[in-house]
Amino acid sequence: MDISRTKHSDDHIIHLAQRRIKGGYGNQRITMDDRGFRERFEGEGLPDTSTERAMRVLRHFVGMLNEMPEEFTSGHNGMGSSSDCYNIIPNDAASGICTDIVVTLASTRGHRLHRFTSVMRDLRSHLIECSHSTEVVFILTDVWDPLKFRESEADLKSHIRKGVKFVPGLIAGDRLIPLPLPFH
Description:
By secondary structure, the chain is α/β, with parallel strands linked by helices.
């Protein structure tokens, strides 16, 4: 694995999280429903090792959302090793490494590229490019609108048939709660 690309990915993760804090989540600390997400994984039949890794990634990402901006300038650089990397959408990188876990973050505010439909388009593109490695996709958003999934439904169903697990999460106030996909 190209360590320089991994390091760039870590830097990018920090940059994105810092932008999200300034973009509206402010000082409000987000807590996640660990049990709810774990139950979703178990219901999807995800192996225990993959479940533990997915939970670590989600905790790490929520932790980044909760960090204060000044802590990002003190050397915080992701999860530490290249085996702990994960993809984040949206991102500004032209290319990157494919990992087994993808975290998307869609917002109702801010730049149009961070809105739900744009993020989902980026996710669909990423899933095509990284179909050989993606196992778990977190779709985190601050608004729940099942109609917004229609554009992506056929593509997501295709990836589900290939074994990809999708776990939507709603950022509601100070909580991150898992939700089922709005289609069967």
